[in-house]
Description:
By secondary structure, the protein is mostly helical. It has helices spanning 6-16, 25-28, 34-47, 49-52, 60-74, 97-136, 141-155, 164-181, 193-204, 208-228, 233-253, 261-271, 274-279, 291-309, 316-331, 336-358, 366-388, 393-407, 429-437, 451-458, 470-485, 491-497, 510-517, and strands spanning 411-412, 415-416, 444-445, 502-506, 521-526, 530-535.
Amino acid sequence: MSPTSPQVGNHxxxxxxxxxxxxxxxxxxxxxxxADLLFVALLLGLSCGALGRLLLRDSDSGWHIVDGQQIxxxxxxxxxxxxxxxxxxxxxxxWEWLYDLGMAVIHRAFGLNGVVFYTAAxxxxxxxxxxxxxxxxxxSLIVTLVLLLLSLGASSVHFLARPHxxxxxxxxxxxxxxxxxxxNESLRTRLxxxxxxxIAWVNLHGxxxxxxxxxxxxxxGAVIDYFVDHENRAAVLxxxxxxxxxxxxxxxxxxxxxxxYHLHTHIxxxxxxxxxxxxxxxxxxxxxxxxxxQCFAILLIVAFIAVATAREKFGASRLLVLLFAAYSGxxxxxxxxxxxxxxxxxxxxxxxxxxSQTHENSAVASWLRHSLRRFDSFGNRMQRVxxxxxxxxxxxxxxxxxxxxxxxxxxxxxxQLINAYFDQKRFPVEAADYIxxxxxxxxxxxxxxxxxxxxxxxxxxxxxxxxxxxxxxGDQFFKDFLKVILIQPGWxxxxxxxxxxxxxxxxxxxxxxxxxLTPGWTILHEDxxxxxxxxxxxxxx
Length: 541
């Protein structure tokens, strides 16, 4: 489907033929567009007030910041672990070293407020870019807006201050560059940006693998078209050759990272480790009882309806991308954001065109045709306003306001606009403060999902035994870790083997209750969130 296909062209004709007058040129500089309002709402919603703390509900942010701080201090990229007492000196692949470096620079200047604001800006930019591209591809404003809200809802499960958000932005850009060049040969020179983007993506996040999957899908789609579309074989063959060249160049570019090909083999071993994939919650299939997962389910239903009612040929490549997005979203919770973004970009123009055609179908009930005509007419008028808004002063103003707040400890005058911190009801904040005040130097055994926060608050004076860098520790360690947490036979021997003298557990947890009853363990600190135990006498290392 080309940019000038009936799906897009008819819809734009409808806009141009509307009776809604464009606002005067000076008004356009002050009139916010829907995209402006979306960006402002997301930026403020995800960085200010109570919602801003949602981005710090995962402790991974902590060790990412500290890793970046180490890079700044040593002027070198880590190759061995230094955070864990039992993995010290072991090979570690800091996939996201470049993102970590950026987070550390921002944290040094603005603290956690800056980290949250930076993440919120990336998320807002990603979804606003998706909204803009979906409109440009032929989606009507109202349909695209509804799909965007569903996509936001589905993605909210992973609204976290972690490097994965940059992969969402790269996915949108990557898909648009490939798909827009599929039937428009004049745009194919832009594909040579992909190898350049690969160099950045491979050093920012392991999600760069998704870029190669999308390229492979379009290559498979081109092969299908070659055998099916006999009339355009020459054009399809040129497209196939271009894709193959870009895939090869991008693949070579992916080796421009601190670890070379070892990064690829490490990621492959990690993602194919069935034990870890079945234990890590974000790699498990989504539980569709949750609100975010239900938004994704609705998005899938809408996508099925859009494809079923489409009158134009959907195309092998786009159908394969849609199937991949649906499957990957159902396969793992962490894939919901990228799957939702891809689905919205694909079906917004298709569904918009189907609705536009329905109100012209005499076989449809008159009341329904009349309702759809009014819906489409209103959407066309609103879209004309959207396309004529050019000032974007609202985005600039709010961005400057939040940046000013970050420079002044989150305050604008007497108002606390941004107040980011790790919630003490979720993380062992009081216990970590106690460890710091008492100068306890023993490595702390704790839950893996607390490890990142403990690294952030205690390193380098106190190390952790374990954190949630599961690819570093491997499946055998986590089998033993679960044995300890679940108090299975041999749990105490594992603690002895790791020379653990300090244990920090959630209050009321199974291990905490067992240690209360086990001779040789003394409670040093306890609060509503965590309890800290010390072995007496300590086991020698």
